[in-house]
């Protein structure tokens, strides 16, 4: 090969190598994407991440054989661990990054499973675009909407078929998150402090939306903890009061160890919650006794 022929080939080689590297860093994996052709899956992902409702609508109307319930996988490049992959659903991504609920609703109407759980991804300042958000963990779209305190999205998801009692992999329901945001079971070391006063109104609205649509106040996760267990253990007095007034069972026990909301509150030294639960139990006992007397008479 002559020097002149080598020079003509050099720009083409450099361009191809640069294009492949750029595609890889964006988190693409297929051969068609590496060659510069974006698949309809990646186009939909990008449109969702850019909150582009018009583009999402166009893709949903024109795409062929697009499976909205197949997890979308991206390649992550960790500065310490190197190359890896992570995945999520289009609907979870829409619930997380979009400013409105229209894109989530469009995906559901086009066939996305409103109750499918998965891991949420987040952007990072280094390497690839997305990595798993380990703080949020495995959630359903409705749980994610509750975490984000989005009353509108909560109500839209319920209207479109979201089950208010559907659980994630840990058996946690939307109610387990409603008062404490990012949840950890009472047995976990990481705990969330009670919600700030400024968030009270929206939290109450989210709680009301769930209860109005049939949320089970006494539903437990896989360890047997109900939302009242969680609120009592964390010292959330106002949340405990709201749950009890809504008819949550204060005597509910975990199946293996028999822990009650009161025993958890005592162990955590949450005096105000302990006093309230005791007083309520005593008041209920007196009320039941009075009813028995009236019935006998």
Automatic annotation (TrEMBL):
The keyword Repeat applies. Residues 1-10 have a biased composition (Basic and acidic residues). Gene3D superfamilies: Ankyrin repeat-containing domain. The keyword Repeat applies. The lineage of its organism: Eukaryota, Metazoa, Chordata, Cephalochordata, Leptocardii. ANK repeats lie at residues 137-169, 223-255. Keywords: ANK repeat, Repeat. Residues 24-38 have a biased composition (Polar residues). This is ANK3 protein.
């Amino acid at each position: 090969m002559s020097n002149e022929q080598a020079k003509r080939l050099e720009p083409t080689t450099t361009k191809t190598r640069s294009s492949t590297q750029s595609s890889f860093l964006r988190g693409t994996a297929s051969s068609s994407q590496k060659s510069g052709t974006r698949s309809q899956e990646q186009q939909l992902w990008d449109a969702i991440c850019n909150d582009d409702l018009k583009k999402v609508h166009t893709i949903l109307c024109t795409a062929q054989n697009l499976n909205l319930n197949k997890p979308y996988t991206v390649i992550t490049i960790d500065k310490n661990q190197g190359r890896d992959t992570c995945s999520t659903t289009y609907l979870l991504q829409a619930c997380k990054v979009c400013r409105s609920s229209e894109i989530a609703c469009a995906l559901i109407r086009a066939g996305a499973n409103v109750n499918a759980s998965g891991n949420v991804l987040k952007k990072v300042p280094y390497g690839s675009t997305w990595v798993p958000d380990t703080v949020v963990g495995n959630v359903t779209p409705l749980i994610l909407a509750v975490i984000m305190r989005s009353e509108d999205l909560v109500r839209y998801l319920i209207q479109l078929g979201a089950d208010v009692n559907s659980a994630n992999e840990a058996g946690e329901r939307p109610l387990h998150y409603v008062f404490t945001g990012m949840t950890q079971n009472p047995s976990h070391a990481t705990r969330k402090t009670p919600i700030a006063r400024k968030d009270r109104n929206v939290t109450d609205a989210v709680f009301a939306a769930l209860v109005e649509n049939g949320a089970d106040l006494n539903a437990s996760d896989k360890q047997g903890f109900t939302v009242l267990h969680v609120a009592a253990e964390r010292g959330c007095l106002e949340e405990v009061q709201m749950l009890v007034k809504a008819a949550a069972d204060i005597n509910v026990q975990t199946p293996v160890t028999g822990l009650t909301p009161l025993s958890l509150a005592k162990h955590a030294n949450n005096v105000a919650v302990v006093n309230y639960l005791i007083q309520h139990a005593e008041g209920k006992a007196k009320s039941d006794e009075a009813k028995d007397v009236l019935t006998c008479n």
